[in-house]
């Protein structure tokens, strides 16, 4: 059906939610809004779905949430009895309708006889991952749009190991989701029936305490925390999301006492009133923290995104506060882990670090220096989780650290997704380590550059809004594949990795890629620079990544600028 027919079907639905019915009435004469909301169904992929909240098949609402959950339930109906009976853990963040969407998911699962374990109030994404493992459920659902603006919400599915559902299972779930034709005929049970039939259980402090106990193991040098960390000045912001309570708990439990909250960003507020983008990689999210930091001479400022899986930091340079990139934060965390474990005599001979293919090669240099394997995986933390699972099954490596350049890090694998709560407490410890030497985290990253060379990276996103966006994004990827550039900024491409075609091409010929199929291109240049291109999995944009290195910051930044110019010229030619 076309968007007009889809719109009319919703108008005529006999059981339409009252709030959505008012939205439908408001858009009666607005064909542009109708087209945007009713032309294309919500995309449901390996990471679930994410979109603007509102009426329509292409929006986040109770009916599209029911549809997604019906797909999961139909998939679980095909499992053996013990797997189905293990149930589903459900959590939600501070966004509009998050708790309602969590309840709707439980209502659909209950109609299939599937038990749900629903948090009694908002909890972060990493704790949902932990809960799946701790409660031994078959799956998990996280209602969140992560760091997107306030108009968005989303729905992510986790598998039995606590990681986002693996490709084979997620593909089957997706097929079931898309087979649900009538969104208004999906059966649900109300909360009273769910509780009476023991099909929904509330969880809370019992899981919290187990999670906090696990996070306590992240601290490496407790003496350092007690002697230096207890007095170190730290400012923390949860960006109006789920991190406020858990971050405070783990910091206090570790021994950090001298920290303050950014109060305007500490309430669980779906408006995110201080910033249009509650994303800790954006400088404006730190404006309030920087004001506080200047007044109190804070050593380090930390912010986590609304579902507390990403972490950003601003550090004192001597002249002011400087935001670190996700790659810089990861490099500092990694170096500290490896050095501390080396000094303690606990660095394993088969240690491994796992990162995405678009993350910094500084981490590779650090890992090599400590005799630790660096494993590259495709973008998406689920692939890091898959590696951890393989290591547990085979014993081939001991996982030491995993990260993506997009401000996501994992220290201990009792969680199988990026965990900003773990990262908060370890980054505080790293700051205490440098403070004990009379230095800051800024001094720390400069020391790494002095030791390993100056590495610089940049990510540029090109937006493709509107209904034409997906086709335009696909056309751009086709352009790069068909026209096959030979160089960028005069530097020859010596290796092309096409993760969609599963081919590596060099002057010597081609060889296969064994990673999962994904729409990613990566170029390795003659000077060691790498460039990657991929459509975003969560936003209507194509991302361009450039990573390079040089003897000095000025030289590296100049190279980044020239490659960015060359990419723009090729893209727009």
Automatic annotation (TrEMBL):
Belongs to the phosphohexose mutase family. Its cofactor is Mg(2+). The keyword Isomerase applies. It catalyses: alpha-D-glucose 1-phosphate = alpha-D-glucose 6-phosphate. This is Phosphoglucomutase. Pathway: Glycolipid metabolism; diglucosyl-diacylglycerol biosynthesis; Lipid metabolism. One of its GO terms (molecular function) is isomerase activity. The keyword Signal does not apply. Pfam families: PGM_PMM_I, PGM_PMM_II, PGM_PMM_III, PGM_PMM_IV.
């Amino acid at each position: 059906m076309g968007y007009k027919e889809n719109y009319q079907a919703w108008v005529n639905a006999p059981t339409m939610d009252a709030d959505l019915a008012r939205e439908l009435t408001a858009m009666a004469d607005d064909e542009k809004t109708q087209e945007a909301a009713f032309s294309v169904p919500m995309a449901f992929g390996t990471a679930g779905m994410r979109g603007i909240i509102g009426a329509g098949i292409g929006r986040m609402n109770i009916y599209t949430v029911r549809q997604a959950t019906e797909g999961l339930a139909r998939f679980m109906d095909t499992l053996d009895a013990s797997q189905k009976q293990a149930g589903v853990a459900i959590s939600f963040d501070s966004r509009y309708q998050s708790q309602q969407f969590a309840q709707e998911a439980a209502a659909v699962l209950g109609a299939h006889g599937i038990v749900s374990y629903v948090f009694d109030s908002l909890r972060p994404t990493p704790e949902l991952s932990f809960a799946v493992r701790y409660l031994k459920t078959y799956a998990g659902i996280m209602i969140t749009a992560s760091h997107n603006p306030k108009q968005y919400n989303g729905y992510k599915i986790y598998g039995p190991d606590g990681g986002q559902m693996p490709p084979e299972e997620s593909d089957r779930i997706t097929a079931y989701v898309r087979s649900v034709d009538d969104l208004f005929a999906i059966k649900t049970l109300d909360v009273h029936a769910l509780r009476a039939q023991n099909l929904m259980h509330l969880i809370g402090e019992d899981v919290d305490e187990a999670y906090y106990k696990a996070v306590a193991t992240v601290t490496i040098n407790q003496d350092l925390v007690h002697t230096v960390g207890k007095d170190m000045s730290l400012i923390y912001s949860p960006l109006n999301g789920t991190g406020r309570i858990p971050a405070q708990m783990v910091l206090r439990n570790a021994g950090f006492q001298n920290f303050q909250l950014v109060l305007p960003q500490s309430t669980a507020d779906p408006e995110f009133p201080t910033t249009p983008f509650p994303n800790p990689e954006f400088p404006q999210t730190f404006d309030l923290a920087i004001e506080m930091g200047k007044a109190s001479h804070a050593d380090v400022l930390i912010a986590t995104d609304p579902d507390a899986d990403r972490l950003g930091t601003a550090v004192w340079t001597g002249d002011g506060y400087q935001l670190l990139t996700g790659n810089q934060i990861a490099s500092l965390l990694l170096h500290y882990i490896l050095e501390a474990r080396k000094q303690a005599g606990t660095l394993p001979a088969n240690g491994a670090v796992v990162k995405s293919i678009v993350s910094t090669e500084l981490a590779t240099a650090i890992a090599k220096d400590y005799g630790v394997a660096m494993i590259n995986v495709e973008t998406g933390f689920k692939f890091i989780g898959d590696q951890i699972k393989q290591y547990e099954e085979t014993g081939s490596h001991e996982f030491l650290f995993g990260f993506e350049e997009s401000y996501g890090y994992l220290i201990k694998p009792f969680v199988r997704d990026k965990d900003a709560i773990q990262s908060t407490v370890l980054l505080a410890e790293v700051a205490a380590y440098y403070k004990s030497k009379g230095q800051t985290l800024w001094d720390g990253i400069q020391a790494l550059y002095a030791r390993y060379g100056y590495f610089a990276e940049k990510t540029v996103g090109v937006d493709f809004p509107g209904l034409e966006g997906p086709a335009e994004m696909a056309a751009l990827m086709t352009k790069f594949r068909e026209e096959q550039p030979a160089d960028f900024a005069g530097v020859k491409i010596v290796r092309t990795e096409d993760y969609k075609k599963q081919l590596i091409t060099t002057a010597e010929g081609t060889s296969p890629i064994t990673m999962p199929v994904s729409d990613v291109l990566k170029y390795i240049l003659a000077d060691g620079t790498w460039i990657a291109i991929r459509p975003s999995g969560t936003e209507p944009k194509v991302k361009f990544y450039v990573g390079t290195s040089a003897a000095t910051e000025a030289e590296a930044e100049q190279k980044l600028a020239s490659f960015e110019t060359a990419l723009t010229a090729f893209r727009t030619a």
